[in-house]
Design a protein that fits this description.
Elements (H helix, E strand, L loop, with lengths): L7 E4 L3 H12 L4 E4 L11 E3 L5 E3 L10 H9 L4 E3 L5 E6 L2 E5 L8 H19 L12 H5 L3 H8 L3 H15 L8 H11 L12 E3 L5 H10 L3 E2 L4 E7 L2 E6 L2 E5 L1 E4 L3 H5 L2 E3 L4 H8 L6 E8 L9 E7 L6 E4 L9 E8 H8 L3 H16 L8 E6 L19 H7 L7 E3 L12 H23 L5
Parallel strand pairs: 1-2, 1-13, 2-9, 6-16, 10-14, 13-20
Antiparallel strand pairs: 3-4, 5-8, 6-7, 10-11, 11-12, 15-18, 15-19, 16-17, 17-18
The structure holds flavin-adenine dinucleotide (FAD).
């Protein structure tokens, strides 16, 4: 059993926790990271084939302006490259496969106009919501109390336009539009600028060797200061410090940073107990649902047909596919697919072989029979993972956005908070995770310094 002491205990070895610990160590403090899983990286995950081909099964894209994540990727020995391959995109709606050249979706005139108007209206609303303080938006309470689905019900008239927008929201949030909080959606889109950017600058760059090289590099730098297989059960304020009860023993420190998804933080016992409002905020953020799949081929053969590898389909179970091949010419071809929301839950209930067969049938329908027989295939059901309980990120319940957004970053006694759900800019993404960890480390440093010089904290 471990009975270690440290200056600061960080709960969770995802990007947030590891960035926090990295910052604390650089500042001369002794952090100890306690992680439930047998691996680091949390919602980023690489699976590497014997020939070195990487399948990214968790977070992977950097958005324009994700400078902290970009800097860490370079420090970790990686480099960034543009994600998008040239070529024609595919859109399959109501069983009809269409080709999309450029940005205009291949819809009939009514659907096209409908979608264009909806985007305009949405962007106007996005512009009215301050990303870092969405509760200050005009009519914030009303927006918080509505779902994206309700807004679409009132705004979009054509069936085709609605199908496309439902598909886009479901894929990007991992939930059906009726489960997406409108205020959260507006702030989230605002973080990237406007709705169209969600499929362009939001998924702009990738990291050579996969995004998960960043947490691995951070953990390497921390060495034995990362304790794996140590789920935290309780956090107890005792005297001038904090005791953290893990499955591998009790560890002690002057301060704690909790860097786990909100629903998992709500499952930890706190002494004294968390105030009701804080607990309610944590509980009001269930994760979206997603299964991510990856298939590897001898080459990116779809490019030979002029296809970009990007496809959206409402036929399921996969709803979106992207070319995820390594950079440069002459290498392997990799496709990634996303199975979001209800589709994810339905797929998860099937036997392994049937899941694979259904996913690859979608790939084959879109890119030809060759796509149905990859050299390697992997899938990750994030909902079934007890240490994530879903993905991509926590979705504020309808009516709970303003409350949870204000409460989640606030320290509680000697406990500080990090995680991609505790920031508003870059919410739910890798950049948000990193900046939240850096923010929490700075907060702890300031508190410990103040304590040392005898100032009240
Ligand atoms: C399929 C998928 C695709 C995504 N795609 C992108 C993308 O392209 N771009 C992007 O920017 N973001 C993406 N994301 C989101 C991004 O991966 C996350 O926002 C980010 O990695 C979260 O980091 P975190 O450190 O806040 O949390 P996590 O990565 O969830 O880390 C939390 C850690 O805490 C541990 N933990 C939980 N409970 C306990 C406990 N009780 N005791 C100890 N440890 C505990 C967990 O095991 C985990 O390691 C994606 C996510 C998923 C799932």
């Amino acid at each position: 059993m471990e009975h270690r002491e440290a200056d600061v205990i960080v709960v969770g070895a995802g990007l947030a926790g590891l960035s926090a610990a990295h910052g604390l160590l650089a500042a001369g403090l002794e952090p100890l990271v306690v992680e439930a899983r047998h691996r680091v990286g949390g919602r980023t995950l690489n699976e590497t084939l014997a020939d070195g081909t990487v399948m990214e099964l968790g977070g992977q894209w950097l958005a324009e302006g994700n400078t902290r994540m970009g800097a860490l990727a370079r420090q970790a020995g990686g480099s960034l490259f543009r994600s998008r391959a040239p070529g024609v995109d595919l859109l399959e709606l109501s069983g009809r496969l269409r080709r999309q050249q450029g940005k205009v979706p291949p819809l009939g005139p009514v659907g096209l106009l409908d979608v264009a108007l909806a985007r305009l209206r949405l962007d106007r609303l996005v512009g009215s919501v301050p990303v870092r303080a969405p509760w200050r938006a005009p009519h914030a309470e009303e927006l918080d109390g509505r779902s994206v689905g309700e807004w679409l019900d009132r705004t979009v008239r054509s069936r085709e336009g609605r199908r496309l927008l439902d598909l886009a929201f479901t894929t990007m949030w991992g939930a059906t539009p009726h489960d997406i909080n409108l205020l959260q959606a507006l702030a989230y889109i605002g973080s990237t600028g406007r709705f169209d950017n969600m499929t362009t600058t939001k998924i702009q760059d990738r990291v050579t060797g996969g995004a998960a090289r960043v947490p691995h590099w951070l953990a390497e730098g921390l060495g034995e200061r990362v304790l794996l297989d140590a789920p935290v059960r309780a956090i107890v304020h005792r005297g001038a410090g904090v005791e953290v009860d893990t499955a591998r023993g009790t560890v002690r420190a002057r301060r704690v940073i909790v860097a786990v998804p909100p629903q998992l933080a709500a499952a930890i016992r706190f002494e004294p107990g968390l105030p009701h409002a804080r607990l309610a905020a944590l509980r009001s953020l269930p994760m979206g649902a997603v299964v991510k799949v990856s298939a590897v081929y001898d080459r990116p053969f779809w490019r030979e047909q002029g296809l970009s590898g990007t496809a959206l389909t409402d036929q399921g179970p996969v709803t979106a596919v992207f070319d995820n091949s390594p950079p440069g010419e002459g290498g392997r071809g990799v496709l990634v697919g996303f199975v979001p929301g209800e589709q994810a839950r339905n797929l998860a209930g099937l036997p392994t072989a049937e899941r694979r067969q259904r996913v690859l049938a979608t790939f084959a329908r879109l890119f030809g029979p060759g796509a149905g027989t990859p050299d390697a295939y992997a899938e990750k059901d994030w909902v079934a993972d007890p240490w994530s309980r879903g993905g991509y990120f926590g979705l504020p319940a309808i009516g709970a956005m303003a409350r949870s957004a204000r409460a989640l970053g606030e320290p509680f006694g000697r406990v500080h908070w990090a995680g991609s759900e505790t920031v508003l800019k870059d919410y739910g993404g890798m950049e948000g995770a990193v900046t939240s960890g850096e923010r929490a480390a700075a907060e702890v440093l300031a508190a410990l310094t103040a304590e040392e010089v005898g100032q009240p904290v």
